[in-house]
């Protein structure tokens, strides 16, 4: 690739030397014809440019998101980790934009990533799209087995969503005890079997599983506060708790977390709206 790029550069140098004489700038490029061989070499050099050069010329990237959504945030973190510049468009979920409806007609949910004329929906699908489109700073491990393992845990965590939701929804003594016990059990499995003694799920650096579980580091604590039960603390889940601290210390994460008090107010409103009325 280096050779091809070098060739591209030397073709450009030759072209600059042989460019039509002009009395100054601007040069009239329309008078400047490339030989077929020059055009082919330049085309090849452009096609094989490394991903960081792609950033300079890539088609526009837009993200339709919602400020309080952990699903939007995992995409934001991925784009930031890759250094992909993008335009963020905040959606009003009570009055969805035509842009959202047009780009995700199936379920009209955020996040949606628009890349040039293509739209990708579903946060996990978007994360894989990002990782494949901009392969530098990989989010999934290289080896097939390691990728399969990361994908297993992502599926496991997503499928346990009902357990976490039951915890969020629990408000009577017995029901709350059961939901808390089940939540701790799931988190213990994640801690022991997926995280082990690593700093991050991705090893020394954060990877796709870290981004998927990222909501435990910022949103879960808010749910605990609303439910009035602490689960993810240093005494019950020491390694997972340390992971939440390490995760939030990564600059890209730290700089891209919604304000906690604003988030608490938002979820408080939603939480008390869904609880059964005390008058009933
Ligand atoms: N499975 C989806 C979930 C996305 C989701 O739940 N988005 C919510 C906001 S957090 C949404 O768009 N809600 C509006 C609606 O469902 O009408 C993903 O991972 O992207």
Tell me, rounded to a whole number, the average pLDDT. Answer: 84
CATH architecture of the largest domain: Up-down Bundle
What is the CATH class name of the largest domain? Mainly Alpha
Helix content: 55-70%
Distance between the termini: 71 Å
Bound molecules: glutathione
Q: Kindly name the structural category.
A: alpha+beta
Order of helices and strands: HHHEHEHEEHHHHHHHHH
How much of the residues is beta strand, in percent? 5-15%
The largest sheet, given as strand count, sense and whether it forms a barrel, is: 4 strands, mixed
Radius of gyration computed on alpha carbons? 25 Å
Helices, by number, come to 14
List keywords for this structure.
binds glutathione, Glutaredoxin, alpha+beta, 280 residues, 4 strands
Walk me through this protein's architecture.
It catalyses: RX + glutathione = an S-substituted glutathione + a halide anion + H(+). GO terms for molecular function: glutathione transferase activity. Pfam families: GST_C_2, GST_N. Keywords: Transferase. This is glutathione transferase. By secondary structure, this protein is of the alpha+beta class. It has 2 domains: 55-133, Glutaredoxin (3-Layer(aba) Sandwich), CATH 3.40.30.10; 144-274, Glutathione S-transferase Yfyf (Class Pi), Chain A, domain 2. Helices cover 56% and strands 6% of the residues. The protein is built from 14 helices and 4 strands. It has helices at residues 2-17, 36-47, 51-57, 70-82, 98-103, 123-133, 144-159, 161-169, 173-195, 208-213, 220-227, 238-249, 251-254, 260-274, and strands at 61-65, 87-90, 112-115, 118-121. The chain has a 4-stranded mixed sheet, with helices on one face. A hairpin with a 2-residue loop joins strand 3 (112-115) and strand 4 (118-121). The longest helix is centred in the middle third of the chain and has 23 residues, at 173-195. The chain is globular and about 50 Å long. The protein binds glutathione. Glutathione (GSH) is lined by residues 66, 69, 71, 93, 108-111, 122-124.
């Amino acid at each position: 690739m280096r050779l091809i790029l070098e060739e591209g550069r030397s073709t450009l140098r030759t072209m600059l030397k042989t460019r039509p004489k002009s009395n100054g700038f601007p040069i009239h490029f329309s008078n400047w014809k490339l030989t077929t061989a020059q055009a082919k070499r330049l085309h090849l050099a452009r096609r094989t440019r490394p991903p960081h050069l792609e950033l300079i010329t890539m088609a526009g990237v837009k993200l339709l998101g919602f400020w309080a959504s952990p699903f939007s945030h995992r995409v934001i973190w991925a784009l930031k980790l890759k250094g992909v510049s993008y335009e963020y468009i905040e959606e009003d979920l009570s009055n969805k934009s035509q842009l959202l409806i047009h780009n995700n007609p199936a379920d009209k949910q955020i996040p949606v990533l628009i890349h040039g004329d293509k739209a990708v929906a579903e946060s996990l699908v978007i994360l894989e799209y990002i990782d494949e489109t901009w392969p530098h700073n990989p989010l999934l491990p290289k080896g097939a087995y390691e990728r399969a393992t990361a994908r297993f845990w992502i599926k496991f965590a997503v499928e346990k969503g009902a357990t976490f939701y039951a915890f969020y929804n629990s408000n009577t003594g017995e029901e709350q005890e059961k939901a808390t016990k089940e939540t701790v059990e799931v988190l213990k499995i994640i801690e022991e079997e997926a995280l082990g003694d690593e700093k991050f799920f991705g090893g020394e650096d954060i990877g796709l599983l870290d981004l998927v579980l990222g909501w435990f580091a910022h949103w879960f604590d808010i749910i605990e506060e609303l439910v009035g039960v602490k689960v993810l603390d240093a005494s019950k889940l020491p390694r997972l708790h340390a992971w939440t601290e390490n995760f939030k210390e990564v600059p890209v994460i730290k700089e891209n977390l919604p304000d906690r008090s604003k988030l608490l107010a938002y979820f408080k409103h939603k939480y008390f709206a869904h609880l059964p009325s005390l008058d009933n």
